[in-house]
Amino acid sequence: MKATNTTAALHDDPDIYTSLDALRRLQFKAQGFSFTPKQPVNSILAGKNASKLRGRGLNFEEMRQYHIGDDIRTMDWKVTIRTGKPHVKVYTEERERNVLLLVDQRQSMFFGSKGKMKSVIAAEIAALIAWKVIDSTDRVGGVIFNDNNAVSMGPKRSRNQVIQLMAEITRQNHLLKSGEVGKEHHLSLEHMLEQVTRIVGHDALVIFITDGYGWNQKCSEYIKTLSQHNEIIFCHVSDPLEHQLATMSQMVISDGDMQIEVSSKTPQLQQKFQQDVIEKLDLFAKVASKYRIPVLPFDTLTATEKQLRKALGL
Q1: CB atoms < 10 A from the CB of 59, how many?
Q2: Which of 51, 88, 235, 286 counts the highest number of beta carbons within 10 A?
Q3: Whole-prediction pTM value?
Q4: 174 and 80: one domain?
Q5: Is residue 216 part of a domain?
Q6: Where is the DUF58 domain (predicted)?
Q7: Phi, psi angle pair for 91, to nearest 5°
Q8: Directed axis angle between helix 217-227 and helix 185-199, to 10°?
Q9: Are residues 79 and 112 in the same domain?
């Protein structure tokens, strides 16, 4: 009975597990930021060092003869040469854009030294963005994944779609348990990204919310493929303690009920830890830099909506 009560108490703790109600309430905080091409000067999405958002795509409407004042960049030179008369292509702007959220709910995300779990922060980021996307009349979908599987939801423009998306995030979030170890950690990322390359299409905005653990060369190849025809943004979630663990010689770890003391004085242990943590995160950062993917940093201490507004220059 005591164990059952303890488990129930943990699931009721908003810092450890999210809830559908909490994610629904974030619609009222989804303000003061956007993912449009026009960004504030302080936004991570602005400037020459960040990948520019393409905005909504253009649909071809018709071919017609050139009129004075037409943009010469729309000139179709093949038709012009063939007919002997200048012709231009006319486009209409798509009113809706597909936004796909990739939400990490793997075991590595079930960590937080202070404040909230990384998994909760990821859920809140996804909810804030989803509510904002719907208000902007774009379509939103998602791939919510853990260490074993990935659930895909095609982009739609409806509030019910957002609620279904958050319900799946909440479901997977509550499957996380302390003491468990994620199996085939790198394969979960590979399988998810391979799935995304098959469903995303062209001219979408893909927002990847993750801690970056398990990244490998295969993941980089999938990102390269996606970035050729879509815009990508990384939301990197980390905990302050993660950056200190590799240099700590001794530590005590607890899940709230039990605790163990771990020593990393053994050179082999410390070397392996540095390889698994530091090198993988470095590879994640290098991929973002190589393909000019903006990285929005998030920690587990500050309110998620404040971090999102700050990253976007507000």
Answers
A1: 10
A2: 235
A3: 0.78
A4: no
A5: yes
A6: 62-277
A7: -120, 150
A8: 20
A9: no
